[in-house]
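Methods: example folding runs. The two proteins below were folded one after another, and each record is reproduced exactly as written to the output file, sequence line first and structure-token line second.
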Amino acid sequence: VQFVESGGGLVQPGGSLRLSCTTSGFSFSRSSMRWFRQAPGKERGLVASISTFGVTYYVGAVRGRFTISRDNAKNTVYLQMNTLKPEDTAVYYCSSDQYWGQGTQVTVSS
């Protein structure tokens, strides 16, 4: 099983990034997917989730700015992040069940 995140980087406040997490060896279409993030010195926390039926959930800090989506044909989950703030700086991980990716760094700074 592999979860591979990509799309992180350095962006100015107010900017946008789109994260991708491509999976293999995993029953993607039958699994809910989640994005987590971990900032320096803080615990890892849930950002957003999407069910097999496409039902989404967002934590309050990102609601209205982030959008989670999935493409079952590509075994990929996305996180579109708009109006980024410095407090969004973190390593972002995708996850499902007991599986995790290696993370991708997002830095929001001027």
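Second run, written to the same file directly after the first:
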Amino acid sequence: EVQVVESGGGLVQPGGSLTLSCAASGFTFSSYAMGWFRQAPGKEREFVSSIAWNHVTYYADSVKGRFTISRDNTKNTVSLQMNSLKPEDTAVYCCKVTLDETEYWGQGTQVTVSS
């Protein structure tokens, strides 16, 4: 059974940092790209960042230079280091993997940026 489970969310002040983690199981982790998405209240879900099997990374313009995605194929985890957080980064952050055109999502972790 494919599973992706996020952790690490919380409340942080503007300008602060937070690291999210996504633990995956049930598939050959090292062979697949992993992605982070977020959904703010009243808004559509949007792409944040992804990392390919070969560690090539992609970022949304809104987080480029502030967020860093990485993966550890020995632990089957993907992390999202978030720096210089802004109130507009407040959202539920979800991890996703696509296997044979089927998407698997985690339950999400809440990130709130507020003073």
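Comment on the second run: The chain is about 0% helix and 55% strand.
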